Amino acid sequence: MSEPTRPLHLAVAIDRAGVFAAGPYLDAVRLAERGCFDFVTLGDSFGPPVGGAGRLDALAVLARLAPATGRIGLVPTVTTTHTEPFHVSSAVATLDWVSRGRAGWTVGVSPGQDEAGAFGRRAAPPADVLWHEAGAVADVVTRLWDSWEDDAEIRDAATGRFIDRDKLHYVDFAGPGFGVRGPAIVPRPPQGHPVTAVDATAALPREAAARYADIAYVRTGPAPDARAVRSLRAAREDLRRRARAHGRDPGSAGGRIVVLASLPVALHTAADAVALADLVAGWYADGVADGFHFRPADPDRDLALLVDGTVPVLQHRGLLRVFYPGGTLREHLCLPRPANRYAPTKETA
Predict the structure, then answer these.
(1) With contact defined as beta carbons under 8 Å apart, do 73 and 103 qualify?
(2) Averaged pLDDT, groups of 10, the chain, 349 residues long
(3) How far apart are CA 225 and CA 220, in angstroms?
(4) Residue 22: CB partners within 8 Å, gap ≥ 6?
């Protein structure tokens, strides 16, 4: 089945080493929003503090910035290792509520023994176990989001009824090393399911992406060439093949995986920004990817050149929108709002 024509999707990382004040992150998100990027990403891990100054909680940072932005999607990395799936579900759902439907999350794992030792619950599992567990977490969080039907809240002050208990559901999920009964403690998010992303560059996370992800990043090096194009094309086809094996139809709206080429960028000049636009346009026209995830070397310099140099060229060529036609991240990515698996099917006359 051939895919329908889709708009070009752009995302950008706003990571800043050693920066802990909210202001620079807010400036970056607002700048990316001016450039009509679909979403920004912010990395996170359970690694040791940077320079002894502590670490950011990416999800908390973007939740702090959500009320100060209007349309752009907000996608933090959330580590599934050593954390409870119930808490992951609640935190990401809360981000979706405070952003009014603009939340996503990048599934992360924690492979280091030092990180495992900090928690003291178990030794660091091997990579295949980590990603098997991460896939199970990605599965159960969507079940928890569905554990409230959309109209479960009553909020009837006269009767004192806040929810309709018949519209809350147990998920009764048994995963590798954990079990979740449910229901959730947070109402179903505005998007139904906040968007799930996975870095699918390697084989193990690629399998999880094919089964559970809405977005798959595939990383390439700093000097994209013909070999990089072949690698990206092969990764995209591999994702589609794996998705079909799991019963997903990547040619349909409901089964679509948005594949983004994740590129490191280091622009010094406006000419570099235009050259990047040429590369983006060429790769997109050739069907290499559905869009691009930029990883700036210098957050201030590179993001400004992307917004004021690369983006206008792509807009002038009719490849990139000039405004946000929708309000949610799923609308930006042309992904439908998922039906609730636990809600009874509504009969039609």
Answers:
(1) yes
(2) 64 93 96 98 76 74 96 96 93 98 95 68 81 96 97 85 91 93 96 98 96 96 83 94 94 92 95 96 93 96 98 96 95 96 66
(3) 10
(4) 61, 64, 65
How far, in whole angstroms, is CA 259 from its chain's centroid?
A: 11
CB 153, CB 162: distance < 8 Å:
yes
Strand ranges for the chain from DSSP E = 9-13, 39-42, 73-79, 104-108, 153-156, 161-163, 173-175, 178-180, 195-199, 215-219, 258-265, 291-296
Q: Residues with Cβ < 8 Å from 27, sequence gap 6 or more?
A: none
Place of tokens 């990383």: 219
Rg of the chain taking only CA atoms, in angstroms: 20
User: What contacts 172, CB < 8 A, 6 or more positions away?
Assistant: 180, 181, 182
Which residues fall within 8 angstroms of residue 155, CB to CB, at 6 or more apart?
162
User: How many whole angstroms separate alpha carbon 78 and alpha carbon 72?
Assistant: 19
- Cβ(191)–Cβ(329) under 8 Å? yes
What predicted TM-score, i.e. pTM, was given to this entire model?
A: 0.93
Give the DSSP letter of residue 192: S
Cα–Cα distance, 263 to 294 (Å, whole number): 5
Q: Which residues make beta-bridge pairs with 74?
A: 40, 103
Cβ of 67: how many Cβ atoms within 10 Å?
Answer: 10
